[in-house]
Amino acid sequence: MGKKNAPRTNGMPRGLALLHDPLLNKGQAFTERERDALGIRGLLPPHVLSQDEQAERTVKHIRQQPSDLEKYIELNALHDRNEQLFFRVLVDHIDEMQPLIYTPTVGLACQRYGHIFQRPRGLFIGANDQGRIEQVLRNWPYPAAIIVVTDGERILGLGDLGANGMGIPVGKLSLYTACAGIHPRLCLPVMLDVGTNNGELLADPYYIGLRQRRLHGAAYDELVDEFVAAAHRVFPGVLIQFEDFANHNAFRLLQKYRDSICTFNDDIQGTAAVALAGIFSALRVTGAKLTEQNILFLGAGEAATGIADLVVAAMLAQGLPEDAARRRCWLVDSRGLVVKGRTELAAHKLAYAHEHAPLPDFLSAVKALKPSAIIGVAAVGGTFTREVLEEMARINRQPIVFALSNPTSKAECTAEEGYRHSGGRALFACGSPFDPVTLEGKTYVPRQGNNSYVFPGIGLGAIVSRARHVTDEMFLAAAHALAEQVSESDLAQGSLYPALPRIREVSARIATAVAEAAYRAGLAGSARPADLEAHMRSKMFDPHYESYI
Ligand code: NAD
Fold it and tell me: In order of start, what are the domains of the chain with their CATH numbers?
């Protein structure tokens, strides 16, 4: 947020307290004058090191670590010590650092959270805090504008990790700051510790959460209700992003709160925007229309139905009737093709349960339905088999193949497999990062179809416009804004998304589009500035140090 938000020295902590404040600490970069004025002379080694030099040293140190988990631990420690330097390193090396602080490494970090735990970050609100959640929230010393909350029941594709899931809101909010410049002071990670049904964790002496099985039913709902109401009393207008809830709660909670508060579920809605943007890019290559696509999903959960709903909204916007649009999206779950005749289908699948004979598995569904696109979001690794990919390449000149499950171990196929088994013709995107692939002299650069391309910009747009709700129109606007950032040269090398180092530019555009949608719908709580995009950029936190005196 630039100079205008520079802290004033009056009221600023001095001495050791300043060095121990991660939001203000600059470590060895404090100048001679600052050292005198702020009472820290002698508390630091005498040699002054610029932020550039500190960043260079940090990156070298990170690269020397023996494993990604060690790198995660080092980066986390830096986050706890010196936030500006942490974000500077992230922003300048986002390609290298994002996979360390977010998927895939954060998955491993969450599995080991209690064992690698050093300092707490964010707020832990437990089942035993019922009746005093507002009090707990008031212990947070900063004015939160955005909360990312999880109950840890479906962490990435890794299942119930209980309170260990805290790594996800922490990592995600780091990306809100690094990628869209939401000030770290405004970001609050929350773990709703309702217990865990993960027996291994309950037996682990270092598990950080409550030793109890998950709350469910009315007790669970009351806790979430109390949290949402208290969060709004303590931080009026706060954006609450629900994250990695199991789908039996995720859909319900989204329906319950979406029209009353400013909220969204990134697994459902953010994923949808990023996938739709990838489809828009792929269609620029094939020249086909969205309304002509037949999309087959492997998986029928939050991501699959979220994407399908937004695809339908986009098809409606292009003139296709709703019924016809829905028939262009098909789901395969663990019991085969989702069809009308199946009994006991969960409510979120019903809109995509079409008339069709039952089919037992994904390959038979590909053969029968001849999709133009397959989207993997079932968290079952290796399910886009050679046969599936070859069949897609037989049916389509350029098949759209999105292997979106995370972390890498759950990916439906690797980038190499995607390109190789389609004869290099797949328009491919992946949830976790894969290196470029060279086949017969041509190099393909797969980019991540990961919601991290959109949620930071959506968050910034919602906060700056003070949106009362986050609507489908905003996600559609985000998908278009993201797709518009993909260049012809990106497409020529097989990339359906812009290069990650452009993410702050991309986020500024997405945020502008989202805020514009809020103003258009009369949902904004702030007056529209004349130059919305310039205003958006002016609100972005800049991690470069500034002088305190
Ligand atoms: P979810 O639990 O809501 O849905 C999983 C679905 O997969 C369920 O419908 C389940 O029935 C189905 N399934 C399970 N086993 C199957 C099998 N063998 N064959 C077919 N279907 C099967 O989870 P979700 O939120 O939809 O997430 C699913 C995956 O997508 C996770 O790996 C998650 O990390 C990933 N994801 C990626 C992104 C991204 O940005 N790339 C975003 C969200 C989710």
Answer: 15-49 (no CATH), 50-261 (3.40.50.10380), 269-549 (3.40.50.720)
